[in-house]
Every structure is written in structure tokens, then in C-alpha cells.
Amino acid sequence: MYNSALYKDEPLLQFIDVSKWFGPILALSQITWTFKSGIVGLVGANGAGKSTFLRLAAGLLRPTLGEVKIAGHDAWDWRSRRLIGYCPSTDAFFHDLSGQQFVLVMARLCGMTRREARKSTEAILQRLGLHDLATRPIYGYSKGMRQRIKLAQALVHHPPLLILDEPLAGIDPLGRHELIGLFRQLNQEGHSLIISSHELETLEQLTDQILILSRGRLAAAGTIAEIRHQLSEYPITIRITVSSPRELARQLIDWPEVSAIEWPASSQHTSCNTLLVRVHRPREFFQRLTQFLAQNTSWDITCFESIDESAHALLGYILGGSGKT
Amino acid sequence: MKGVDSQLLQFTPWEGNHTRRHAAAVAILRISLLLIVRQRLFWALLALAALAFFFFFYAQYLLVWISQHLAQETIRIAGFPVSVSNLLRFLDRLALNGSAHTYGNFIWFQGYIIVILLAFSGSQLFGNDIVYGSMLFYYSKPISLWHYFYGKCCTIALLLLMTTFIPAIILWIEAGLLFDWKTYYMQNYHLLLGITGYSTLIALTLSLLTAATALLFRRTTPLVLAWMGLFVLLRLISNWLTLATQDASWRLLDLWNNLYLCGLWCFGVDHATIRPVPQPSYDAACLVIVGIIILCLMYINFYLKYLYK
Predict the structure, then answer these.
(1) 3-state secondary structure chain A
(2) What pTM does this model have?
(3) Which residues of A touch B30 (CB under 8 A)?
(4) Is A82 on the interface with B (CB under 8 A)?
């Protein structure tokens, strides 16, 4: 039997050189990744291997090569699933059952006694704001309530690791906001979460830790800043507001790191003193700029910001597309 | 993001005593039963099964009452006088007399309803889980897929026992009360064992067959067609071939007849009294049933091995 003392010293989830084949199709290729705690967002285009990745993490699939470990134990071992709450993307429920009955059975499957299961079910339904509606059949639930019920069954046995496959899909903005708040709260209480989503902006609100899958390969992992740092060739656009923009542009255009300089259309966010500098080797550019500004202190720079440092832009670059998944 | 250590310190996982994993099968049985009893078709089929039971129940009572009170009388049927004793001799062919054939015939008649019930339950219990992906909910919990199948098969077995074993036991108790109960119960306790054996065999074989066919066909319509093929078409074919060739071996194609033969073997019935004739030997019927059980287990094992790997 697992207890908290056992898994405190081990990473919660480890992928060690994991590959997964479905017949002739390579779904995941040589993934090595360690997750200790916190919230991590899993992003990637359709067919990138997100669901396969999550199912391997939840011990629902066995890797063709490599190992997946939950707190140091084989994820395929049924005991490892005691440490996991898995919320599948599928919306297939037992529609005739009430939410309470469904969660209660799931609690019993986790090895709880009848009394503990009942107690835990009531607590989790209360927690997720479903207590009043719990006796209603699931077929009458809205999309948001279904997501909450799925979350309730994943949380009912208090697992340290929650694996959520597209938990925000199809949720209206208000419901999404509530769920994000809930995920944050769960994380603050000590649950670790792996969340797959197409909503990059939403994931950005929740965590800066992301994992990017592309065609079955782990394209990038870490915080958005770390990933950017790793990609020294990742081009960025910098908005600079300065008292004499034409003079600065004349200086910068000769630098090899700068690929273009533009004058943005005037709007409430920009003034006529603003210029956009497209940089293709950011690290070198920033080093050079620091030296340049130290030598020439007369520049009156009032604004200096990267305008495409978001996960969306980063993903677009990594996946070679627009970033839309 | 907060520090790792502080998060772990705040987190208090559930560390209660885990029940045995077999208890999960009970939970699956419970949820499966709930799913089945909420379907109207189930109640319609149960009503039909109850109808067959009440026919046997009251017919048995009526025949005993007639034989005890009107045996010497003559009644008029369509204007013709008929001796009640002659009528009783004719009705004896129905074997509504608390003998092994009473229970054997009763379970045989329930077969028609059972076939539809199982085709329907198979798609509800197994097919939907696979087609709509709800099996993931079960399998993401700390149980193995064998526990899942164990729980589901137990549900089917329970449905079968509800339609065969329990009513047959009531008929046995009734038969004892209609005759001299002490003598009947003492002399016919082996029938009770026979009912148990026959019902258990049906529950075991058909629950595995339901699971295997549901995994193969998944959706209700193909599943019903498959069951009709197995239990109706094969029966017709086996009847024609047996009549045409007078070779009893062709009856082995009829699965329900094989179960019936095994059931009568449990009752200890003399093979020569089994109708219709010719019938294959008890051994051959048992071999077919064992073969089907093994095949079903092999298929389920094969399926489980490759389902999530």
C-alpha cells in the first residue's frame, strides 16, 4: 500500500525514454520527462499524442519502450492508480445514474468502504458545488456540470496527482473561470495537476509550466521563459518607445541580430515614438543592446517590451504554424 | 507558483484502509444492476419471465387439485364427454408434477426470454462501455480489467438466477406443499441440487458468452442478431438436420439444448426419457458446453490483453 511518506522522496511522475506504438503508428517517441509537483499544461496539435501521453501517465496504457513511473513505481501497476485521479476527455457517462451514485461507485472502486465512500462523495460534491444537484440524473446536467462530475470522480479518493484531459473543452467563459480557480485552489492544497488543453491563453492564466508535444515528440518542456531561453534562434518582436525613434532605428538596423524594424499604426497603445524591432537572435541582441545603452545613456526609453512572448506565439513557432491547435 | 515543500506539507492524502479489490466487483455489479433496472425493456422482459413462471405455478396447482378432486368425474369439452382421468393423462405430458422434468421444462421455456434479455444486457453492460469509452472511468481506478469483467459477469449471472433459479426454487417449494411435504422434500432434495446445478451452469456459460459476444459485436442490433443466430437459427438448423439424418449429433449445434441436457444430467434424469428424440449423450453436450466456456474465456483474455496495451 502506498502512503504519502513513500512518494515524498520520489518524483510524482517520470517518463523514461518512453515510446508508444499503435501497430505501425508511432504515437509517442522517446519521451523523457520528470514531474515533481505544481501544475503543468500539456499542449499540442490534434494527433500530437496528448491523450496517449496522459493515458500512459495514468497507467491506462503500457509503453512499448521505456518506463512510466508514478512515485517510483511502475504506472502500469494497479496500485499506482491510487495516486492518480484521471479525468478523461470522453463525455460518455452512465446517463441514467445520478451524479451522486456515479461518484459513489467510483469511490468504492478506489477501495473505500461504503461509509468512507459515502462521506468522501458528499464532501467532494459539496466542494465542487454539485451537492444540490447530485441526486438528479446525469442526462440533465449541463456541460460544465458534467466536467465537474468527472472531476469529482477523479478527486474522490484524494489523489496527489490529477490528470485532466481537456477539462475546459466546451465550457463557457464563466464556467472556465470557475474551473481555473478550482484548479488553482487544488494546487494550493497540494494536488499536482497535468492539464491538457487547446486553450493556450487559458493555460497561461493557470500555469507558466508547459509541455509541448509535436507529432509524438516532446518539443519543449518548462516555463515559457525557459523554453524561450532554450530557443536562442526564436524570433521575437520588441516594442520600444523612445524620444527619438528614427535615430534609434538607424542605429539598430545595422545590427546582424535585427531582421526588420517597423513603425506600428498609431493606436491607443502606441504613440508616434514607438517602433517594432524584429529580432531573430534575441539572446545576442539583448547582450548587445545592454552594452549599447550603457555606452549611450542619452536614450530616453519609456517602454521596452516583447509583444509575442506568449505561449501562443511560442507554440506557433515550435509547431511551425500559427499556434492554433 | 508556490514552493514544492510547502504544498506537500499542506496536502493530506486519504490513507484509510483499502477494501479488497474483489469488493470493486460488487460495486460494479451494483452500478450495472442500477443501469439495467432503469431500462423499461428489462421490466417488460421480467414481466414475460414472470408470466411463464405463473403459468407453471398455477398449472401445477390446478393439475394437482383436479387430480385430487375431479379424477373420477366426466366433463364436457365442446359438447363431448371427456373423462378427467384421460385428460390428466394427456396433461401429464407437460410434466407439471414437481418432477425433474417440471423444473427442466420451466428453465427451458425461460430460455426464449433469457436470449433477448442477455442480448440487451450485453450491449448495455459491455458494449456501451467500449463504444462510448466509459470503460476508462472504471479502468482508471485501482482495479484490473478482470475485476471489471468479474463484476459485469456477476450482474448477468444475477439476472439469469432471477429468471431461472429463484422461480424454480419457488416451484419446488410449491410442489412440496401440494403433496405430502415431508415426503416430497425428503425424497426430492436432489432436485434442489439439480436446480442449483442447472442454474449455475446457465449463469456461468451465458454470462461468459454474453461478455464475449458483447466485446465482439458491441452494439445492440448486431448483438441481438448474433444471439438470434446462436439460439434460434442454430436450433432450427440442428432440428432439420437431426430429423433429416436421424443423427443426434446435429443437436449439439443447439446451445440451449446442450444446456438443457447438462441440466437434466444435474437432475439425474434417465436419458431415455428426454424428448424430443434422438438426443446426443450427456457427455457430448457437456463437452460442447465446456468448450464454449473455454473459448469465451480465451477470447476475453485475448481482448483484455490487447485492449489497453
Answers:
(1) CCCHHHHHCCCCEEEEEEEEEECCEEEEEEEEEEECCCEEEEEECCCCCHHHHHHHHCCCCCCCEEEEEECCEECCCHHHHHHEEEECCCCCCCCCCEHHHHHHHHHHHCCCCHHHHHHHHHHHHHHCCCHHHCCCEHHHCCHHHHHHHHHHHHHCCCCCEEEEECCCCCCCHHHHHHHHHHHHHHHHCCCEEEEECCCHHHHHHHCCEEEEEECCEEEEEEEHHHHHHHCCCCCEEEEEEECCHHHHHHHHCCCCCEEEEECCCCCCCCCCCEEEEEECCHHHHHHHHHHHHHHCCCCCEEEEEECCCCHHHHHHHHHCCCCCC
(2) 0.77
(3) 105, 108
(4) yes
